[in-house]
Amino acid sequence: MSITMTEAAARHVQEFLDNRGKGVGIRLGVRTSGCSGMAYEMEFADEVGDEDLVFEDRGVKVVIDPKSLVYLDGTEVDYAKEGLNEGFKFNNPNVKDECGCGESFTV
Question: What's the rounded mean pLDDT across residues 2-9?
Answer without folding.
Answer: 95
